[in-house]
Amino acid sequence: MSIQAPPTIASLSNTIPGAESFDSFNTKFHTDSGFQLSRIPFPIDGQCVNDVENSRWSKKNWEFLKTPVALDTDTTECRHSLVMSDSMVTEKFWIDQSGFKVERRFKLKSGKWFLVYYDDINM
User: d(Cα 121, Cα 94) in Å, to the nearest integer?
Assistant: First the structure.
């Protein structure tokens, strides 16, 4: 039995003919606000929770995401999980027993990647 390395972000979606590469999507999504908004089918699942409010995401309250999905993430302050398949990417950051959790899910639909879930909990 051989041990396989986890997929790299660059190789993700290359197994689906004609599909957009997650790597190029990931870069453009986190640098181009217009592109980002075009790839979020509002309203999306997930919520923004803090000491002041608990709200669902909409175009009006959306905050531009600048940090790309990454395999190697600095985990000195929080924990990190990344699960990738050829049609779904789920990334989580959290601090145990702190009330802090961020989770985002990207899904491949009709050959294009979309953000379909975003939880930003900071209590």
Answer: 9
Instruction: Enumerate the β-bridge partners of residue 47.
Output: 56
Place of tokens 């601090």: 95
Query: Does residue 43 have a cis bond before it (omega within 30 degrees)?
Result: yes
d(CA 72, CA 42): 29
Rounded to an integer, what distance in angstroms lies between the CA atom of residue 6 and that of residue 62? 32
Chain centroid to CA 77: 19
What are the tens digits of pLDDT across the range 83-117? 999 999 999 999 998 889 999 999 999 999 999 99
Whole-Å CA distances, 21 to 13, 24, 80, 123: 6, 6, 23, 35
Q: Which domains does the chain have, with CATH numbers?
A: 9-64+77-122 (3.10.450.410)
Residue 21 near residue 10 (C-beta atoms within 8 A): yes
Q: How far is Cα 97 from Cα 31, in angstroms, rounded to an integer?
A: 32
